[in-house]
Amino acid sequence: MAEPVVPEKSATPHAALQIRPPVSELIGFEVSEASEGHVVVVLQAGARHFNPMGTVHGGILCDIADAAMGIAFATTLSPGESFTTVELKINFLRPVRNAQLRAAGRVIQRGRTIGYVECEITDENGKLVAKSNSTCLVLRGEQAAGR
Fold it and tell me: What is the rounded CA–CA span in Å between residue 67 and residue 31?
């Protein structure tokens, strides 16, 4: 299994396109767009992502939102920095079945220690499916070692 890659801040904005976290293979999403502080993750949702009610499981929506926000935040890291998500919230706004989903994560505020990130998940018709936000904690030194 490939190790996830976290681009250095000095890397080209599209270095985030090279990120392929192992969970992306399990769920089936890809990074389709990237620039510093902004990442789009896409997923062709289908029956393998359904809950017992026959709609895409909320955890799948949460996974793609978390990936879009996390990778977007990772594009802002300097060499030697890492991060962890300390809070994540999601609102599910409409049921989804078979759909091409687009999770657009954007860093809203990046401080020295704390960052705030938002994500909108839309379907192929541009309809808003879910909205999410997260708070990220920047790690340095020993805290960032091995992460």
Answer: 9
Pick from 27, 43, 39: nearest CA to 99 = 43
Q: Are 28 and 63 in contact (CB under 8 A)?
A: no
What is the number of other CB atoms lying within 10 angstroms of the CB of residue 31?
23
Contacts of residue 64, Cβ cutoff 8 Å, sequence gap at least 6: 27, 29, 41, 43, 101, 103, 121
CB 65 within 8 A of CB 87: no
Span 101-119, pLDDT tens digits: 999 999 999 999 999 999 9
**Which pTM does this prediction carry?**
0.86
Beta carbons within 8 Å of 23's beta carbon, 6+ residues apart: 63, 67
What the chain holds in terms of domains, given with CATH numbers, is 13-143 (3.10.129.10)
